[in-house]
Amino acid sequence: MHDAETETAPLLGPKGQASRKGVRRYLIERVDLRYAPLPLLVCCFLIGLVDAASYNTWRVFMRNTIFLALSTAKLPVGSDSLKWARSGVSILSMMLGSFIAGRAYAAVGLTRRSTLVASFLLQALCICITAVLVQADAIPETNATDKLVLIAIPFLAAQSGAQVATAKSLGFSELPTTVLTSTYNDLASDTNLLAWDNSKRDRRVASVVMMMLGAISGAWLAKGTDTFTTVLWLGAAIKVMLAFSWLLFPAEPEK
Fold this sequence. Notes:
The chain is mostly helical. The chain is 67% helix and 0% strand. It is globular. The model is unreliable at 4-9 (pLDDT under 50).
């Protein structure tokens, strides 16, 4: 029989409470940003992977102003009547993703482990929602002219926008994670392009390589499996792994 003191004792003893405080403290620690380019470079691969497959399937990149402008004149010749809507929705959704992510980061502190994990898990969820909709045949996989496609595009575009906001907010604007046009220009105009020690140049070159590898992988996966969902589930899995990788990052050194 337990005495009264035992009955009223807390379920968690001192060790358990200390452990919970330790986990909470670990999650709110700021990570060492010296290693942040590594997951961001994987994001470059991921955007190439998803973009190649999405264009092959729905004839839309997750952001392209020129496509939107051309479609107002029904160009290129033979373009479907819904191209302007797909382009417009993707651009607005990407901006919305960036808007929400940027303000969330400012409010709670981007470099905390918990913030980065939550952000990448939410981005993975957006890809998963698209994959479920397509796999369940709620969204047509092969008919880009079906208006139901406009339901799925915002999820992919919004997570893409959040991804851009993450790279910018972490201070790595040289890592595009979405488009390479500015990266090519930055490389060409870099007066220290051939210098031995040039970390920004190295990251730009790496981003080009990673995005190209992702696009090639997406193209061959889309061709080999003849299904968009394979690429989507792979992209979601990569995003989840990136989310939990932030837990392995060392804490920011004390100043």
